[in-house]
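Check out one such.
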Amino acid sequence: MSKKYIDIMDTTFRDGFQSVFGGRVLMNDFFPAVEAAKEAGINHFEFGGGARFQSLFFYLQENAFEMMDKFREIVGPDANLQTLARGINTVMLDTGSRDLIDLHAKMFAKHGTTTIRNFDALNDVQNLEYSAECIKKYGLNHEVVVTLMDLPPGCVGAHDVPFYEKTLRKILDSGVPYDSICFKDASGTSSPQKIFDTIRMARKLVGEDTHIRLHTHETAGVSISCYLAALDAGADGIDLAASPVSGGTSQPDILTMMHAVKGMNYDLGGLEIEKILKYEEVLTDCLKDYFMPPEATQVSPLIPFSPMPGGALTANTQMMRDNGTLNKFPEVIKAMREVVEKGGYGTSVTPVSQFYWQQAYANVMFGPWKQIAPGYGKMVLGYFGKTPVEPDAEVVALAAEKLKLEPTKENPLDISDRDEKKTMKYWKNRLVEENIETSEENIFIAAACDEKGISFLKGNSPLSVRKNSLDICEDDKDCKLGENKVMGNSTGNYTVVVDGQKFNVTVAEGNADIQVTPVQNTTTQAVAAPVTSADGVEVGATVSGNVWKITKNVGDKVAKGEVVAILEAMKMEIDVEAPVDGTIKSFLVTQSEAVEEGQVIAIIG
């Protein structure tokens, strides 16, 4: 009897890169490996979408549409090229209007996509209906998704087999058009038995002719067992990655899975071990200069307590490196359990995993529930759809107070359609103002990436990749060195400690003075007294980050607690408030400037 053919999607160049490098891999560095994968017989790739769309514009000075076109040229017209979409969020962290959701499908169809895997992190089927219509409208295959995870220990109410059956039945009853079904566990926390029971349940519901597949990560150490359970229950496809971006926070390795099914009645994509070995050798050479975060290669027994997706973990730890807060990582992971439970059990996958992370980060840095991360707050208030269970009532009330929004049960698409900033017209006019070509691609880039998209289109976006040596970094002038421990002759703002006292040191090129100022003593336990210098009362940066917006002008009168600037850190907007009543005498920073925690950004007289 012939072995059952199992379709293998190679996630190396999308989820693999996202899970290990936070998506920050330059296309010309990895394209030789794409050629090698093709030669190895792989013809189903995840090649874009998800967080790998925005990351190219944010960090790599690359156009995602151009990358997709070149990828298609390498693999040829017959390969199944797949992208990841987040339902009404598409490839954005916020909900899109109907115009933008339609434009997403149109542009991805134009630029080489065969299949779009489409999920909603809340498993709110209403959020899948319109995006599915758009995907099919432009001739693409639609892979509809049920998102999975295990709840932290002691938590109940969702994410068991009956919950997934209810979700799948809603999909079937809604009439959402689909070509295949994927069960997606971005955190890798589902148990093998639950996977077996879920796939078997789905097979009974949809019959033998529907393609069913499982996607998971090795983050919690059970991915191979889960894939074997899925295959035994009747799954038709699984997702794998190639070393060195396999295992750990990513998908299991192709070779590892081939070894795991030896002696079983499964043919993994017709792949041959020797050819895959050659492909992985080429990929390893392509990525040899990239800094491999140690957490990307680890399996963590703590992840089921969070649960933190592998695809988001390294993106967040890289940002923590940039902000100098990586030492807080264990505390943030620990804080996520409460955030997940009180947030209504949306699946820990983008964008909800990012909301969980941001709220846990805020709880650690500023004190429990002292601030509400905007995404998390809008989620519990209903602006992203219906959560699996009702969020904590106190958290909902706090979010309403902090964000000045009322809870809603309205369709998020209707809310977005009324938002002028989510219309094609708005972004077309914005491009005209900046003298940028108003192509549909550029409109979508600007809408999906906001001001960072505009910066990219104007040629002003940064290059932010991490390499292993200074010599390599000199080739990519703005890249960062590994753990970024070498200061060299760098200019900029630094924090140093002398006899237990923190100081900000501003270093400039040439013969400019080196400025040293004491850092305001900020803690999460108490509010520090205002620091007064000879010039007036200092307004310190709340956390390390970038100055996103200066909300006041020199000479403006402000009241204590009034916002004078907004920082961007960990994809959050963080208010900087006036510590006293007074008048703004000066600003010591400019918009987009990087600042350290406690750095003086303004003086109030």
